[in-house]
Amino acid sequence: MTYILGKKLGMTRVFKENGTVVPVTLIKAGPAVITQIRTRENDGYEAVQVGFEPARKIKKPQRGHLKNMEAVKHLREFRIEKGDAKVGDAVTVSQFKPGDFVKISGVTKGKGFQGVVKRHGFHGMPASHGHKSVKRHGGSIGQRFPQHTLKGMRMPGRMGGVRATIRGLEVVMIDTDKNILAVKGAVPGRNGALLEVIKI
Question: For residue 26, which of 11, 40, 101, 158 sits 20 to 30 Å off, Cα-Cα?
Answer without folding.
Answer: 158
